[in-house]
Amino acid sequence: MTTLQAQHTFAQRSDAYAQARPRYPRELIDWLLANTADRDAAWDCATGNGQAAVDLAPYFNVVLASDISAEQIGEGLARPNISYSVQPAEQTGFADNTFDLITVAQALHWFDFARFWREVSRVAKPGALFCAWGYAWFECDPDVDATLVQPVRELIGPYWAANNRILWRGYPDEDIEFPYSRLVPPALTIRAQWSVPQLIDYMQTWSAYKRALQSGDVARELNWVIKAARQHFAQRAPLQITMPLSVVAGHVIKG
């Protein structure tokens, strides 16, 4: 899948994406701050609706948050020191040597890696921290997993892009061509308490789910699974959801 195709996929129902995606753990933000020397400027690249940017805003003088999707930026969470812009990750209008911290949440696997690393090296200050993270699968109650999650995953399986598999593999160097020495982060996990309807809303933001809806037969089966799950779990108490994070991070060494 190309970057433009990814842009189109995530532009669809950007409001739903903003509402359904989970927040990142506090331990992640603490680790970023502990490994960032200065706190003048941060760049949150592929910001979506600004979830990571909002978490960074209290600690930096300015957070510049960019995304290739104008629809996603339109859902951006407003803060006085966050400035949103529509521009690609690989070619921005930011000045050289601007940022103390550069973050990418749930998006690195969509980039043109060679071009993106050149841009990171250009706009980062010497020694700035780069950190990207993402989550793939989640764990929840076994009966919900068997009745809802696994049937949906089987139906949409053929519709995942090759890019998603880079995330599933945990962003290994051979996939992303990471040019800096890796830091070793602590084990980080998203923990959420969701109702079954909230879980369904989240699953419907998956890029493969959106593409599967374009196939009439698969769309009908998906709709049947979702309808049956809503009815079966109508009185279900909130679920405990866990999502392990894959993290790649390093300090930018400028040649």
Automatic annotation (TrEMBL):
Keywords recorded for this protein, A-Z: Methyltransferase, Transferase
Chain ranges of the Methyltransferase type domain: 44-131
Transmembrane segments: none
GO term, biological process aspect, one: methylation
Gene3D superfamilies (UniProt xref): Vaccinia Virus protein VP39 (3.40.50.150)
Molecular function, one GO term: S-adenosylmethionine-dependent methyltransferase activity
Methyltransferase found in the keyword field: yes
Stored PANTHER family: METHYLTRANSF_11 DOMAIN-CONTAINING PROTEIN (PTHR44942), METHYLTRANSFERASE TYPE 11 DOMAIN-CONTAINING PROTEIN (PTHR44942:SF4)
Family assignment from sequence similarity: Belongs to the methyltransferase superfamily.
Name under which the protein is recorded: SAM-dependent methyltransferase
Organism of provenance: Thauera aminoaromatica
